[in-house]
Write a structure and sequence with these properties.
GO terms for molecular function: NAD binding; oxidoreductase activity, acting on the CH-OH group of donors, NAD or NADP as acceptor. InterPro entries: D-isomer_DH_CS (IPR029753), D-isomer_DH_NAD-bd (IPR006140), NAD(P)-bd_dom_sf (IPR036291). It holds the Pfam family 2-Hacid_dh_C. The protein is an alpha/beta fold. It has nine helices and twelve strands. The strands form two sheets. It has a seven-stranded parallel beta sheet. It has a five-stranded parallel beta sheet with strand order 2-1-3-4-5, with helices on one face. α1 packs across α9 and α2 packs across α4. 40% of the residues are buried. The structure holds NADPH dihydro-nicotinamide-adenine-dinucleotide phosphate and oxalic acid.
Length: 310
């Protein structure tokens, strides 16, 4: 019998309880799943950082922490978390990120804001978009989410360049890597989408220098994490016209504080960290598979490299 503690926002339990129970049964596990256990009885924690657990020390027989989130920056430095930490890679989450990124890139590419006429009976001149093949789009981060987004944009015929830490091979995408590859990825890009994790190495990865390499009048779409973009440089680039607009889903402080310049800036679109969410049915299978692996003595999947921070 394995004891699985579900530790996330209480409203998530209603979403996850049935699919998780079904997935654990389907994986052939004899499991007890609950939102409360005596800590010393718990084998696995299904975990979100905004749930009740932050000190893992009392969980003396814990075998792994299974994150419901893809981004683990709030977990990697927790000194009480000494067992394997697995992040969420869920095809439901990936599909929604592809839809969100593609939607926002197409908003800019097609000039949707400019070309939708007001309901005032005035026929104003519009602009016809160039073909996607004539626009360079750069995706920073080619992991589970970035690679899928880059591929979807390539299928729409954009000239897609991607960037990762190590060498990558993604269908239809020109891949760059390492510190030396960043400038080539960004140079002349009309659009940049950020899908990197928040680590010490990625802070302000899109800075004034990088924005200056982009095509004048370019666009930034950030569903990754707030610290990836140098906010001061972004505002300066928007004010100077180097960038035309930014869509930001994530921020250094969330919720974005009232009065923050992003709320009132005419060239910024703010969305409330909704680009993509883990989906209970698909994510439950991933969690159950990791518990099955743990019990069978097989290596966990999607294990976090704590030193790299993702
Ligand atoms: P992955 O870990 O699968 O991919 C991360 C990518 O970033 C990899 O390609 C990795 O390179 C690259 N990378 C990491 N560090 C560096 C570096 N220093 N220089 C260059 N490239 C680097 O993550 P996911 O794709 O699953 O998720 C990406 C991020 O998306 C999450 O960390 C989270 O912050 C965010 N997110 C946001 C959501 C939202 O709703 N807004 C929802 C879900 C996730 P390599 O492949 O070489 O290791
Ligand atoms: C995640 C997120 O990391 O929702 O999963 O941002």
């Amino acid at each position: 019998m394995v004891n699985v503690l579900f530790s996330a926002l209480s409203k998530r339990w209603a979403e996850y309880e049935a699919p998780l129970r079904a997935a654990l049964t389907k994986a052939g596990l004899d499991a007890r799943l609950a939102t409360e256990f005596a800590p010393e009885e718990v084998d696995y924690i299904v975990y979100a950082p905004n749930g009740p657990v932050s000190d893992f020390a009392p969980f003396t027989k814990l075998k792994a922490v299974l994150s419901l989130w893809a981004g683990v920056e709030t977990m990697v430095d927790n000194p009480t978390l000494t067992v394997p930490l697995c992040r969420m890679v869920d095809h439901g989450l990936t599909e929604s990120m592809v839809e969100w990124v593609t939607g926002h890139v197409l908003r800019y590419h097609l000039g949707i804001d400019q070309n939708i006429l007001g309901q005032d009976g005035v026929w104003r001149a519009g602009t016809v978009a160039p073909l996607a093949r004539d626009r360079k789009v750069c995706v920073l981060g080619l992991g589970a989410l970035g690679a899928a987004c880059a591929q979807a944009l390539a299928q729409l015929n954009f000239d897609v360049h991607g960037w990762a830490r190590g060498p990558k091979d993604v269908d239809g995408v020109t891949c760059h890597h390492g510190a030396d590859g960043l400038a080539d990825a960004l140079r002349d890009a009309t659009m940049v989408a950020l899908l990197l994790p928040d680590t010490p190495a990625t802070e302000n990865v899109l800075n004034a220098e990088g924005m200056a390499l982009m095509k004048r009048g370019g666009f930034v779409v950030n569903p990754g994490r707030g610290p990836l973009v140098d906010d001061t440089a972004l505002i300066a680039a928007l004010d100077s016209g180097q960038l035309a607009h930014a869509t930001l889903d994530v921020f250094r402080i969330e919720p974005l504080p009232a009065g923050h310049v992003f709320w009132s800036h005419p060239k910024v679109t703010v969305t409330p960290h909704i680009a993509a969410e883990t989906k209970a049915t698909t994510a439950s299978d991933v969690i159950a598979e990791n518990i099955r692996r743990g019990e069978a003595g097989e290596p966990f999947i999607h294990i976090v490299d704590r030193a790299a921070g993702y």
